[in-house]
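Review session, final week

We close the course with one last complete record, chosen because it touches almost every idea we covered. It is FAD-dependent oxidoreductase, a protein from Paenibacillus allorhizoplanae with 426 residues. Go through it on your own first, then we will talk.
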Amino acid sequence: MLELEYDVIVAGGGPGGIAAAVSSARLGARTLLIERYGFLGGAGTAMMVNPWMPYWASTVDGKEVQVIFGVLQELIEGMTKLGMYGHPKQRAAFDPEALKVVAERLCLEAGVELLYHTFLGGVKMDETGSGIRSVIVANKAGLTELRARMFVDCTGDADLAGFAGADVEKGRSVDSLMQPMTLNFRMANVDTDRMPDKLEITRRFLEAKARKEIDCPREDMLWFYANQPGVIHFNTTRIILKDATCPWQLTEAEIEGRRQVQELVVFLQKHVEGFEEAYLQTTAPQIGVRESRRVVGDYMLTAEELLAACKFDDCIARGTYPVDIHNPNGEGTVIQHLEPGRWYEIPFRCLVPKKINNLLVGGRPISATHEAHSAIRIQPIAMAIGQAAGAAAALCARGNMTPRQADIRSVQEALTGQGAQLGLSV
C-alpha cells in the first residue's frame, strides 16, 4: 500500500474544505485536499445548493452589514469577474460551474495539492488511540495510506471523525431524527415575466397535493432565480426519515428525490404560467444533505446562544443565518430570526472533537445541538469555520502541538491576516 505524508490533510472539497485547504497552505503547511468528485464545491456544486444564504445582517433601517469575508469574499470576487455571481432578483445566486473553476484556482494558487476521485475509506490510529496516524482512501490506484500531522474533517457528514472514534450525535434529542434531504433541480426555458408570485405557486402546489398529483411532504414551493436567463432553481423536494450516513438509505433517498422531481416538473408545466414550454435542465449530481453526524467537541453551541447573539473570547467565525429546522417527519419548517443588525459568534472549542488530539472539524458537523446546527449549516458559515480549522491545523502542524495547546490569539491573527473579520482588535 502506497504511503504519502503531509503536514495537513483536509478530507472533503466542499465549502469548508476549500477554505480549510487554502488557509492551511497559505500558512506554509504542506496541505493535501482529497475530494470524492472530479471538482470542488460540494454543496454548491455536487448538491447544487443555490443561492448562498445571507452572509450579512440586515438592520432595521434597511442597511446591510457583511459579517463573513475571507475565502468566501475571494470566491465571490472571482465569480463576479467571470460574470457568474449575482442576479438582479437574487443577490447571492452563483453559477456552479464558476464555483468549480474559481475554487480550484484559489487552491492551486495557494499551493494546495489536490487529489480528486478519491473516497475516504478508513482511519488508522496511533498506539494511544487518541491520535490519527493515517487515513485510508480508495481511488483508481486502489487503497492508499495518507499520513499527516494534522487532519481536518470537511466531509460534511463527519466521516473522518466517525471513523476515528470521535463522539458523535445524530438528529434531534427526542428521537435522533435528522432534517430531511433535498434533491435540487432546475427548469430552463421559463418565461419568468409570466410566472405567478411565490405565494400563488405554493397555493397551486398545495391544491395539486390535495388532488394526489404530487406526493411531497413539504408545505411550500421553494424556488430561486438562477444566473442564466430563463432558468429557475428549485429546492422543493423533501425526503424524510433517511440517514445520509447509511449507504442503503442514501440510495433510497436519491431514488425518491428523482421521483418527486418528475411529479413537480409535470405540475409546473401543466399548472403554472411561464412553464408551458419549460423543461427539466438538470438535477443535482448528489442529493442535498442538511444534517447527519455532529461531532461532540470541547464546547457545544446552542440555539439559545445564537439567537442571543452571544460572543466568545475564542471566536473564529461569525454568522447571521436563523435557526431553520425542516421537519424531520414531514411538513413544516421552524424559523427563528436574530434581532435586526445582530450576529452570533462561533467558538474555536466547537471545532475540537473530544478524544482525538490531531483532528479539527471544518464545516457543518461541528459541536452544536440539533437546533443550533440548523443555523450554522449553510455554505458561507461552513467556509468561515473551515478557514479557521485550516489555519489552526497549519499552526499546530508547524508548532508540533495539539489544537488544545494552540494559542487562540495566534489563530485569530492568522484569520484576520487572511481577510476574515472577527470583530476583534487583533
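Two points worth writing down before the exam:
The mean pLDDT is 96.
The chain has two domains: 2-173+291-417, 185-283.
Good luck, everyone.
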